[in-house]
């Protein structure tokens, strides 16, 4: 069997042992899945709007440039 040598034991210097059952306290918006998914959806909407604005701006510039070059 396994023999334990008591001379190898060292005294515990830090007496405060963390309790594993302690709940984690954080902001509800950070931990709630509903708010996390809402943040993701709003981020996707912003990206989609920016993409559409860029496409419309590029098309407008091309059409205006073509008009001025044709005259």
Q: What does this protein structure show overall?
A:
The structure is a single chain. The protein has 2 helices and no strands. The protein has 71 residues and is an all-alpha fold. The N and C termini lie far apart (98 Å).
Can you summarize this structure?
This protein is mainly α and 71 residues long. It contains two helices and no strands.
Characteristics:
mainly alpha, 0% strand, rod-shaped
Write the layout of secondary structure elements.
Elements: H1 28-31, H2 33-70
Task: Give the H and E element order.
Answer: HH
Tell me, briefly, the overall form. Answer: rod-shaped
What characterizes the major β-sheet? none
Number of DSSP-assigned strands? 0
- The fraction of residues assigned to DSSP E strands is under 5%
Number of helical runs?
A: 2
Structural class: mainly alpha
Nearest-integer average pLDDT: 77
Low-confidence stretches: none
